[in-house]
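Saturday, quiet lab. Running sequence design on the structure tokens for the scaffold JK sent over.
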């Protein structure tokens, strides 16, 4: 007799694939045993059943990626012993090859970072590559990078073992049950209703529906931008002498992975120009299904794949498989609590890595649900990072074909997406094009990255890990900021007006700094959670008695808005308005910024009349704009919030008047290099939700004696009471002016590895590459320790001497800013 569905459960998980069973397993392991998994067909019937089962690290460039991967690898290696069901895990090894110097350099940069985080990847010779993978043609290979502990598992076996592990701890799993509705009341998920009308009430709903998640979420008003695409692999007939323990081979030059499969060879494609599948919705009755292969489209990619293993051309084809896999717009999963519904969580969009990353992601989400906070940095995977624009049919249609190739191809630090562009354009876009802007995409925004002398030159001639063709133009922008004056379009900055009788109460409890300040004052502040860990860093400006302006980076738009809305208490009145689309932000910075501004306004711009960290309404030509005297580049200047209808006119006026002062347009590369010289922090890039303001060097923005306190006060007070921290963020400058820094480079003190850089850039004023990063010592990171230490940075395997500093190396007394 079929077991009846319960009428209530503490957590209901929708979807019985790898991620759904992983989430159930980890919730139960944390003690939440009243868990129900609802699978519309059979476990693994969506995409899990046809996954390749690779348990390989790839090139991982964040701590979070490393933690998610290593958790899964370690779990799958031990799960069979726990449950008694095989997982098929075998550590056959993982070999990545490089056939050009750029790829070798990239991997030499990443490998030390991965080793720091528990992944035993090391460089080997072309001859060793050939020995490990004798069936391959390694004649063009310059180096390989081998991880012996990596390998493969059987996707179905892994999922069934996880399901048993969850059941052993009390979870219930029901197959053949379709969820038709996520029930909600007052903005909170309250349960699910099945297709036959049965309802289960619950404290937590978790969407783990794979490629069906987007349409299920949409039915409840939840934005989950992901799209299924055709994914191919070919399996040859048996190959004599092919070892069952052949390592998994990844070759970015052919966009293919290779592994043994039942005596034959599997060639798995991640080809450029992939085909989206079922843009209008995944059929509800699709299970254990295949897609008819498009031989004409895929044949050229197969030919390229075979070039690495040419001897197999004479072996017959057992199977050309095509099945759907779901992908997200930035190739990072969708994880966390949805901004649209409280207590509705999601884990989907694993980008064909559902087995590889399913365990780590399930573990993160389980802790998030049980503890209230994620255990790792989730700024790059949080579901609240996207807008509804990213889920439109047209966007998914256009971005989808680029995603598979982007996963497996060669990577560069500044290479972005080419498809589905121009989603958000500043009112100044055409003016910036005429000024020679090369645009990068940032969270949907077209953002000037750097400026060429003419529009025709605004292109990357060749992507590289070394100096590119735009490097000297960027250096000129940087020098203009330090010596003359620059103009920057910063319209992408997110801007919220918060007003109402309880606006001050809301801002005060969110902000570590004091925001109950006179009208017109700007306050830089951190927002933290109850554990004292970052949720945002931003500015709060008091515009009136009950009115504030919150300005934050575009990468934190959704998270900041969600946090504000979630912390309005019952009965409070605080209205939050996103005013970003209506405001064009134009920044004017540099030693000559005041001289320029005095030519375009009748307002007194002197230091006495317009002090640092204040805001005024000023006239600029015909127009009234809000001017904020604040900086993220370390120079005198103002951020002008201009009504978008006046943006072009104001920009033209500033450009015309600015010629006399050497005014130059400047882009994001210059913003980064300027702010790194000043050691300014940026949430989501340098600091994240695992860090705290004290160790990050932002203790000046934390007012522990603030009346009424703030969220996270007690946690930060405890950290502060411990004295000089043993973990601390420092600024570094390479003593050799030639190497470049991008982030993830390891830091050594007296020959001992003590940390890594979060981000890097080139300090044209300081005369070398500069970066910031956390170091952890056995003793307090004191001024004497920093000054007297022998510091080195690992750049692609080479130890480069560096200087380190607690205070900003450029203008530590802030004389340039406050003049």
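Result came back. Writing it out in full:
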């Amino acid at each position: 007799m079929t077991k009846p569905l319960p009428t209530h459960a503490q957590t209901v998980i929708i979807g019985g694939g790898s991620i759904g069973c992983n989430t159930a397993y980890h919730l139960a392991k944390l003690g939440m045993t009243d868990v129900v998994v609802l699978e519309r067909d059979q476990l693994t019937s969506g995409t899990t059943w046809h996954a390749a089962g690779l348990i390989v690290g790839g090139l991982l460039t964040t701590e979070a990626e490393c933690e998610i991967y290593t958790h899964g690898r370690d779990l799958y290696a031990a799960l069979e012993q726990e449950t008694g069901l095989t997982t098929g895990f075998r550590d056959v090894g993982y070999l990545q090859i490089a056939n050009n110097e750029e790829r070798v350099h990239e991997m030499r940069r990443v490998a030390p970072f991965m080793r720091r985080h528990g992944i035993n990847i090391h460089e080997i010779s072309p001859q060793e590559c050939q020995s490990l993978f004798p069936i391959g043609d390694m004649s063009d290979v310059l180096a390989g990078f081998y991880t012996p502990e990596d390998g493969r598992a059987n996707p179905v076996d892994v999922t069934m073992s996880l399901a048993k592990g969850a059941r052993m701890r009390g979870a219930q799993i029901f197959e053949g049950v379709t969820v038709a509705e996520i029930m909600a009341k007052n903005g909170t998920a309250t349960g699910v209703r099945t297709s036959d009308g049965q309802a289960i009430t619950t404290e937590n709903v978790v969407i783990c529906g794979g490629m069906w998640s987007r349409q299920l979420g949409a039915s409840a008003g939840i934005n989950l931008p992901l799209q299924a695409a055709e994914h191919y692999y070919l399996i040859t007939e048996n190959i004599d002498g092919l070892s069952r323990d052949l390592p998994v081979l990844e070759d970015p030059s052919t966009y293919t992975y290779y592994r043994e499969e039942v005596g034959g060879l599997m060639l798995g494609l991640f080809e450029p120009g992939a085909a989206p599948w079922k843009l209008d919705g995944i059929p509800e009755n699709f299970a254990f299904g295949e897609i008819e292969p498009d031989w004409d489209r895929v044949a050229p990619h197969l030919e390229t794949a075979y070039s690495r293993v040419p001897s197999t051309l004479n072996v017959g084809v057992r199977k050309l498989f095509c099945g759907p896999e779901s992908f997200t717009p930035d190739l990072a999963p969708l994880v966390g609590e949805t901004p649209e519904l409280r207590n509705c969580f999601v884990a989907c969009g694993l980008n064909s890595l559902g087995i590889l990353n399913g365990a780590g992601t399930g573990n993160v989400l389980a802790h998030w649900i049980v503890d209230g906070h994620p255990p790792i940095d989730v700024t790059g995977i949080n579901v609240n990072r996207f807008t509804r624009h990213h889920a439109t049919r047209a966007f998914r249609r256009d971005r989808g074909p680029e995603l598979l190739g982007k996963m497996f191809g060669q990577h560069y630090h500044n290479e972005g997406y080419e498809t589905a562009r121009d989603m958000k354009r500043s009112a100044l876009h055409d003016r910036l094009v005429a000024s020679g802007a090369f645009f990068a995409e940032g969270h949907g925004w077209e953002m000037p990255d750097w400026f060429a002398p003419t529009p025709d030159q605004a292109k990357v001639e060749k992507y590289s890990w070394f100096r590119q063709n735009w490097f000297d133009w960027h250096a000129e922008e940087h020098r203009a900021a330090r010596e003359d004056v620059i103009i920057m379009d910063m319209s992408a900055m997110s801007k919220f007006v918060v007003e109402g009788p309880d606006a001050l109460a809301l801002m005060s409890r969110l902000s570590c700094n004091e925001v109950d300040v006179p009208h017109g004052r700007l306050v830089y502040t951190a927002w933290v959670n109850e554990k004292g860990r970052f949720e945002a860093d931003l500015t709060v400006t008091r515009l009136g008695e009950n009115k504030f302006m919150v300005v934050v980076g575009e990468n934190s738009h959704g998270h900041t808005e969600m946090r504000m809305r979630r912390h309005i208490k019952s009965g409070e009145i605080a209205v939050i308005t996103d005013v970003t689309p209506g405001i064009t932000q134009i920044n004017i910075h540099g030693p000559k910024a005041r001289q320029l501004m005095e030519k375009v306004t009748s307002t007194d711009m002197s230091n006495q009349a317009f002090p640092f960290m204040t805001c005024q309404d000023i006239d600029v030509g015909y127009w009234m704009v809000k001017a904020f005297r604040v900086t993220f580049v370390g120079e005198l200047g103002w951020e002008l919030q201009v009504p978008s209808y006046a943006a072009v006119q104001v920009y033209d006026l500033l450009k015309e008047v600015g010629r006399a002062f050497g005014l130059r347009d400047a882009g994001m590369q210059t913003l980064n290099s300027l702010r790194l010289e000043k050691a300014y922090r940026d949430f989501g890039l340098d600091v994240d939700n695992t860090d705290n303001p004290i160790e990050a060097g932002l203790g000046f923005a934390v007012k522990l004696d603030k009346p009424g306190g703030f969220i996270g006060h007690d946690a930060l007070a405890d950290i502060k009471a411990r004295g000089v921290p043993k973990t601390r963020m420092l600024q570094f400058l390479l003593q050799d002016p030639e190497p470049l820094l991008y982030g993830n480079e390891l830091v050594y003190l007296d020959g001992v590895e003590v940390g890594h850089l979060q981000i890097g850039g080139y300090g044209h004023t300081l005369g070398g590459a500069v970066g910031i990063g956390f170091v952890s010592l056995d003793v307090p990171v004191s001024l004497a320790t920093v000054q007297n230490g022998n510091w080195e940075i690992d750049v692609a395997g080479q130890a480069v001497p560096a200087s380190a500093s607690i205070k900003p190396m450029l203008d530590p007394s802030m004389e340039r800013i406050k003049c």
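Notes for JK: The mean pLDDT is 97. The chain has 18 helices and 37 strands. Ask whether to fix the surface positions before the next round.
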